[in-house]
Each structure stands twice: as structure tokens, then as C-alpha cells.
User: Which sequence fits this backbone?
């Protein structure tokens, strides 16, 4: 008596391309984290993470840059007789720095979760 073979659906290997991509990315991130957190023996024994201080700075400056972008945008609209180009350029620069600070917050959050996963509390 031969074993029963269950035919696979013709689309089984294409069922979840997003899931396969996420698994590949998770594997790549875990390998990168393993390289980042390995001990070489050259690091200080009681070294502390800089991530909490970096998170605080990113939070403070994200708020300040958003406020600066709003203020200079307001000044460009309210006072058109003044140098509008300067106000608009400054608002754009503040907005770009605000975006950089927010992206940095996401990077910090991911790295802090990596630290917790690898047993290194920040």
C-alpha cells in the first residue's frame, strides 16, 4: 500500500510573498544585530548605552524643529513684505531636521528592542 500523496495547490509557492520577504528581512536584521552586539573583548566592561540620551535629544529637537517650521511658515505668510525666501528656506530646513529626528526615534526604538532581545538593557 503506497502512502497517500496530497497534491499541493498550484499557487502554494506564491501564497505569501510578503511573509517570505518579512522572514528574509528578519533574518538579515538578526544577523546584523548579532554582529552589532557581539563582544570583542575591547569594549569597556561597564559600558552604558547612549540610546536613552540620544532618544531624549531626538524627542526634544523633533519638537523644536516642528515648532520652528511652523513659526517660519507662519512668518512667511503673515509678513510678505519681509524676506519671504529666508523664512521659507528656514521652514524647509526645520521640517527636514524634524523628519530626521523622527526617523532617528524609530531607529533608536528598534535598537533598544534589539538590546532587550540580546539581554543588554539600556
Assistant:
Amino acid at each position: 500500500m503506497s502512502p497517500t500523496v496530497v497534491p499541493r495547490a498550484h499557487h502554494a509557492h506564491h501564497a505569501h510573498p510578503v511573509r517570505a520577504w518579512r522572514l528574509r528581512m528578519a533574518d538579515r536584521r538578526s544577523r546584523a544585530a548579532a554582529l552589532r552586539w557581539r563582544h570583542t573583548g575591547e569594549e569597556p566592561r561597564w559600558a552604558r548605552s547612549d540610546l536613552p540620551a540620544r532618544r531624549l535629544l531626538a524627542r526634544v529637537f523633533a519638537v523644536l524643529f516642528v515648532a520652528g517650521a511652523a513659526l517660519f511658515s507662519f512668518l512667511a505668510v503673515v509678513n510678505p513684505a519681509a524676506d519671504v525666501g529666508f523664512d521659507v528656506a528656514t521652514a524647509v530646513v526645520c521640517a527636514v531636521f524634524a523628519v530626521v529626528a523622527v526617523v532617528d526615534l524609530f531607529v533608536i526604538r528598534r535598537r533598544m528592542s534589539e538590546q532587550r532581545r540580546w539581554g543588554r538593557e539600556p
Notes: The CA atoms of residues 73 and 91 lie 6 Å apart. Residues 49-122 form one domain.
